[in-house]
Amino acid sequence: MEKLTAQLTPGSLTARRRWAALTVLLFPVLLVSVDNTVLSFAVPAISAALQPTGNQLLWIIDIYPLVLAGLLVPMGSLGDRIGRRKLLLLGAVGFALVSAVAAFATDANQLIAARVLLGFFGAMLMPSTLSLIRNIFSDATERRTAIAIWAAAFSGGAVLGPILGGILLEHFWWGSIFLLAVPMLLPLLIGGVLLLPESRDPHPGKVDPVSILLIIMTLLPFVYAVKSLTTAAWYIPVAALGLSLLCGVIFVRRQLARPNPMLDVRLFSNRIFSGALVINLISVFSLVGFIYFVSQHLQLISGLTPFEAGLWMTPGLVLTMVFGLLAVRFANRFGASNVMIAGLVLSALAYALVVFAGSAGNDTWLLVAFCVLGLGIGMSETLSNDLVISEVPAAKAGAASAISETAYEVGSVLGTAVLGTILNGIYAATLKVPTSLTSAQSEAATQTLAGAHTVAAELDAKTSLTLLETAAQAFDHGVLVTASLAAILALVAAIVVFRVVKPVAK
Fold first, then answer.
1. Which numeric CATH code is attached to 14-194+203-208+258-436+468-501?
2. 3-state secondary structure 337-372
3. Which helix (H) or strand (E) holds 268?
4. For a pLDDT cut of 90, what percent of the chain falls above it?
5. Total Cβ atoms within 10 A of residue 100
6. Quick one: pLDDT at residue 506?
7. Between helices 185-195 and 84-102, what is the axis angle to 10°?
């Protein structure tokens, strides 16, 4: 078997073998994508079962992409050194095993710890898939199509996540959602061994433990600072931001001083490369932030079951997948930068519709908004990923794809960390709990919307109705503010494309 696969090289693959290899690479993408969206829809069930605080709930969601973001660059460099296929298969085994462990967590801290390990193994998966695509498909048109399919798989997983998760949550306990990862392991391992070529960087940067620590200590304090803005004394987030900035500066200086750095930070001097990263980050920020609040709104305010909520979001996610594929044609006709600008403007329009939906109180407008968002994300994210990896030599694909995935995961973290923290802060500040509640009940109700529903179940009918109504009003008020912020950020990203990427894009 080893002898057979050792003969596989990117240049020796026929067209049929290349596309078969791409099919194999879609499994880890689906694995991670399903895991992300299904968790968002399980927030109410997890809140009811494990009763996490507001911050614990955010950490359950955010710790996975945060660890992922911190380790993507080191893992990308490790894949360049030991082999991208080897790293991919190792990550797949670990991810599936830890997913099974996460399913049986008995409290919030255990689930957070399991999510940390999922982030560790997930970091082995994502840069390997994109860098292998970069090496397998040398033709620019084929590569752009392959990346469009790769991005569409993310959206496909996002579609499957809520639907499969909804079915599981209606019939089984919340932990069953993590078991979805296990059936994807076998075809990935078999197909990976038989179809994927091995590829390495002939001159890889060294895996530098100090640099790995600096990356983590740049991202972790930053996210902590954002999360603690509304709950801690002012000097705590300021100190965390200062530490984040200091570690980031030291990391950059260390890479510049090393003859063969773990991460070639000089890549950021390329305007197209850096601008595409901003687009990638903002696109994911918009998508994850939307899913975070709308999944709770649909289940806890509109009263839909998890399965019904998943079906409700399916049209928007399908449009993300379809327009991710169509973006290739649009780019050939209108230019990649123009298509990305249109996508970001549509994302801003989607959040503007959320503001209108909040004032109108109509879930139909939310559905329309999510469909518009799906159009925008599909058009902008696919092309931004292609720009990132097409701007570097094939030998550096691991580092470039790791940076691209880091932007993706940082956007995912910030989508819930920034918008989620602001939303939770406004919710807690504006919620008016009935005076008859005990201090413990008041504290639980103000932590999360799900907490308010848990407390309401313990009250008499009149008091319960009052609490649920005021909780819904406070939550939707927070949504109005966060939607306005997200719309502004999407417009800023569109300006970045227009001013930075468009003048030099090919």
1. 1.20.1250.20
2. HHHHHHHHHHHHHHHHHHHHHHHHCCHHHHHHHHHH
3. none
4. 5
5. 15
6. 47
7. 170
